[in-house]
């Protein structure tokens, strides 16, 4: 059963410190009359020691902590308001989102790995026909605080090994907060993660994709789902604005032969994109790119006539791609019983809770 949050107006007047980069924290220090080195001290408390109250920042003077309170600054951490646990160990967490729509994060344990799938928006503007998030419409973009709060506030967050921007929303439709979150995750003053631990999934917004490639070293995952423009547009209306051929042309300008990984997400639909013709065209389209293809079984969602192909069909598609020189794997489905698998995240309308 979901918990309903009782909001206090003071919460809307406060300014969260989590989600701020070192530059942002320097501005806070200046505004509060604190020395500039206080920014690094606050970053240490926020992202390394993970405090939940500014009073716990004990190497700041009492006067400095009082000034933070007077200026309305709070740590800004918020616990999830509900959780669901899958039989396979996957956990889904509901967080306060934007407007009337809460957002979801998914924690995926797998032997020595623990991956968190984070959301960047409440809803999505991309309107992909196979995705529950897209079907609910767009409700707003998360701030960097809303993104980082997911990372810091899920149970077991200290054990995370990987993070994927594959939850609700299109990350490149909310680029500035996503870049700030990546900076916090990878900078030495933040969580100091290697960018190899982070993957950003996108439909391929061209200008924003170039910025992401130029300014970060995170892995890239591009949603493709059909190699044919007309068919892809039927599944993903954004093909009209961002043709996959243009996305691939941009990606070919970059080197993915070393540590940065490029992958293509290919959800398989029975009788739609799962035959030899699609396999051959996909291999032709991706030839010359150092990449891999993740084949994903479609997870049925309400109101959709799409269905998943058999395991045998998916294995044959994978083997054919590999035979044509395109590395392909089948992604294991996790959390389907709690609506946490790929394409199933929808959050909650707070008015209906």
Class inferred from helices and paired strands: alpha/beta
Task: Let me know the CATH homologous superfamily of the largest domain.
Answer: Aldolase class I
Spell the H/E element sequence. HEHHHEEEEEEHEHEHEHEHHEHEHEE
User: From the 3D coordinates, which CATH architecture of the largest domain would you assign?
Assistant: Alpha-Beta Barrel
Low-confidence stretches: 1-12
Note the gap between the termini.
9 Å
Radius of gyration: 21 Å
Into how many domains do the coordinates divide?
2
Helix proportion of residues, in percent? 25-40%
**Cα shape:** elongated
What percentage of amino acids are in beta strands? 15-25%
CATH class of the largest domain: Alpha Beta
| CATH topology annotation of the largest domain | TIM Barrel
Largest beta-sheet details: 11 strands, mixed
Supply the number of helical segments. 12
Question: Overall pLDDT, averaged?
Answer: 92
How many individual β-strands?
A: 15
Describe this structure in words.
There is one protein chain. By secondary structure, this protein is an alpha/beta fold. The protein has 2 domains: 66 residues, DNA polymerase, domain 1; 271 residues, TIM Barrel (Alpha-Beta Barrel), CATH 3.20.20.70. It contains 12 helices and 15 strands. The strands form 3 sheets. Strands 3, 4, 5, 6, 9, 10, 11, 12, 13, 14 and 15 form an 11-stranded mixed β-sheet that branches. A two-stranded parallel ribbon has the order 1-2. It is elongated, with a radius of gyration of 21 Å.
Fold topology:
Elements lengths: L8 H5 L1 E2 L5 H10 L6 H11 L13 H9 L2 E2 L7 E4 L5 E8 L2 E10 L2 E5 L3 E3 L8 H4 L2 E4 L2 H10 L8 E4 L9 H12 L11 E5 L3 H10 L3 E5 L5 H7 L8 H8 L10 E7 L7 H11 L5 E6 L13 H13 L3 E4 L17 E2 L4
Parallel strand pairs: 1-2, 6-9, 9-10, 10-11, 11-12, 12-13, 13-14
Antiparallel strand pairs: 3-4, 4-5, 5-6, 5-15, 7-8
Helix pairs in contact: 2-3, 6-7
